[in-house]
Amino acid sequence: MKSQDPPSEQLQVLVNLLTQKRLKQALFESSQMLEEFPNSVILFNIIGASNAGLKQYDVALENYKKALEIKPDYAEVYFNMGVALKDKGDLNAAIDCYKQAIIIKPNYAAAYNNMGNILRDKGNPEAAIDCYKQAIIIKPNYAVAYNNMGSAQKDTGNQEAAIISYKKALKIRPDYDGAYKNIGSILKNVVFTRPISGLQEVISSIIDRKNIVKPQDICQATISLLRFEPVVKDLFKKYFLSELNQSLVGVVSNLSDTPLLLKLMSVCPISDLEFEAIFTDIRTALLISMIKIKNSPEVLQFQSALALQCFTNEYVYNQNDKETLALAELEAEVAEDIFKGGQPRSQSILCLASYKALHEYKWCDLLVLNSSIKEVVTRQIFEPKQESLLKAKILVLEEISNKVSSKVREQYEVSPYPRWINTGLSLKPETLSNKTKKLKLKLFNDSINDIDSPNILIAGCGTGQHSILVASKIKNAKILAIDLSLSSLAYAKRKTEELGIQNIDYMQADILDLGKLDRKFDIIQSSGVLHHMDDPMAGWRSLYDCLEVGGLMKIGLYSELARQHIVRMQSEIMQLGIGSSDIEMRSFRRDVISSNEDHHIRIRWSNNFYTLSELRDLLFHVQEHRFTIPQLKDSLSELDLKFCGFEADTIVRDFKLKNTGANDPYNLEKWHSYEQANPNAFIAMYQFWCQKVA
Questions:
Q1: Is the distance from CB of 266 to CB of 309 less than 8 angstroms?
Q2: Smallest Cα–Cα separation from 14: which of 52, 56, 59, 44?
Q3: Torsion angles phi and psi, residue 608, rounded to 5
Q4: What distances in angstroms separate CA 557 from CA 131, 185, 239, 668, one per listed residue?
């Protein structure tokens, strides 16, 4: 049978509709055209692709088979069949189709690439790598294949090879966000023992692209890489020889020639005690030597980064008496200058900004902007003022009346948590059904997968990272994000507007008052919140009452076992009568830094140790409960919720090495045994999903 196809201009119209994802129109017009050209192999292929895009896989496959009856050697149809079968979940049949496409068309790079993807999904990264290599031999500038090969290499544990592959993908496509994100994912778990050529430039690009990766996640890897820089080596040498003050301007100027360090300082707390000690000493020296130092561009550039670092870590660095006196003198000098109608040196403003937020000074609105202080003024004056204005626009459900809730609210009004600049967002939102599939959740009611536009509640959204991340992940989500703290909500609202996100509503509310909303949600997420309530079960029950039948809930709770070192420190704080003022916390933190006690050393590994609000949340919280896995099991039973699985890829992967049964990841008794053997596994909290079935 010979194919009789429509004219090329008519086919191009259909192809354009497919490309534009106007699938129903493409299906309608191609089906109409098929009546005139009943033996068109191209029309059957387009009808198949349209149906596959609409997730009507069986109908798609029928049309592909009709195309092959007309033209048995049509490699593109076998390729498309492979795509449909993969999406349907029939991976072996999909591989067979790709193999057949390659037999017909041996130089079919895309078929090799897609076959590699399936082999990786099936847990065979080595075979996947062979496919990607073949695709690259055929098509040397195949950025997608390099990116996919990097992911397969990462699966085998070869992180360095993965980074090299991702870098090759970026060399071909410098705007490849997926490759940047994948490198960021590797950097979360790496400390470099030698320099990697070209990687600093890639990390710098990741930071410039802002919300590809959460900067804090890549801080340790970046710092470990920077330590190999000659400038940084010289910095440490001078510090350990107590020579920083002798060559202060030279040291600061050299650091200004290390752009990656300055960028990192500007966007996240540097969680490294040696760098902290050096920055603290430089800050002191700049203040004490203010009159002697010239206003050079290099010094101002470093001072700006230092002021941003100190503002972001909420002035966690220690301050001695000599600094306090010098700071008071500088504050008086700057105030007098401004109130007389003058403008202080940029250097003086940046020096003050590294000790105290500029918006706290009465004269802040009288500053005249220039390029040297613009970024610091934006972050320390303009953005806090914007948040103050936004507070008045945030809806309030009910006045907070619970005593413990009121205390928690007061803590977060003073210390919105966390103060973040950029975060890691999903590159493309997915349907809820795809998301539950990727999370490998055990569902007891599949109706949740039929919801196209889910109503989602984020209960305890803090400063907005959680709600914004969910908005970026789930397609067509309608999100209500609540929190006790107006300061936190205003921060969240500002960042949401900054990112142009329009599907999140913010409201001040106590979880205990949610019944007054008279609303039901398909998804509820509450991470790190219930364990700070007076009665966590009362809060959890309130969330349960707002959840639709068949709805999913993600809960994050502290582990009793993983937090023993923290409990010990909290007891020390209580016994010593240490309060939670900024001065007292800095003083206690200084003692912990100089301690050799194991539990003190361990707390220094936590990123929370490197900002004031996170330190308060970690060790000085007004209310905290902790849980065991048996308690989780009892709580779920009491609420009639079904456990659907933990969300913790690395932990789940490790768990599965010894717990190989298909149902083991959903067995809390096995998880309890696992945690007993691995007491630090859930140091970042239990993060798990559960479902309301009745």
A1: yes
A2: 44
A3: -65, -15
A4: 42, 24, 41, 15
Strand order across the 641-646 sheet: 395-396, 504-508, 478-483, 455-459, 521-527, 547-557, 686-692, 641-646
The pLDDT score that the predictor gives to residue 244 is 85
Decide: 44 and 11 in contact? Cβ < 8 Å.
no
Which pLDDT score is estimated for 424? 94
Q: Rg for the chain (alpha carbons), in Å?
A: 29
**8 Å CB contact between 170 and 180:** yes
Average pLDDT over residues 394-401: 95
508 DSSP β-pair partners:
396, 483
Contacts of residue 273, defined as CB under 8 A and 6 or more positions apart, other chains included, come to: 593, 604
Instruction: Tell whether the model's pLDDT for residue 80 goes beyond 70.
Output: yes
Write down the pLDDT at residue 1. Answer: 59
With 0-12 CB in 10 A as exposed, 13-18 as middle and 19+ as buried, what is 25?
middle
Give me the pLDDT at residue 291, please: 75
CA dihedral angle for residue 647, residue 651, residue 654, residue 655, rounded to 10 degrees: -60
Q: In degrees rounded to 5, what are phi and psi of residue 642? A: -100, 130
Mean pLDDT, range 440-447, rounded to an integer: 94
- Tokens representing 35? 């009546």
Residue 671 burial by Cβ neighbours in a 10 Å radius (0-12, 13-18, 19+): buried
Per-residue model confidence (pLDDT) at position 3: 62
Q: Which helix (H) or strand (E) holds 407?
A: helix 403-414
Q: What is the mean pLDDT of residues 77-89?
A: 92
H helix runs in 415-511, sequence order: 432-438, 465-473, 486-498
Q: Global pTM? A: 0.92
Output the six-digit token pair for 294.
């010239």
The answer to whether the beta carbons of residues 466 and 525 sit under 8 Å apart is: yes
Q: Beta strand 641-646 with 686-692: parallel, antiparallel or unpaired?
A: antiparallel
Using the Cα atoms of residue 347, residue 349, residue 350 and residue 351 in order, give the sign of their dihedral: positive
Q: Which residues does 568 contact at the CB level (< 8 Å), separation at least 6? A: 599
Return the closest-CA partner of residue 376 out of 442, 311, 422.
Answer: 311
The rounded distance, in Å, linking the Cα atoms of 462 and 263 is 25
Q: What is the mean pLDDT of residues 640-660?
A: 94
In 289-320, which residue ranges form alpha helices assigned H by DSSP?
A: 297-312
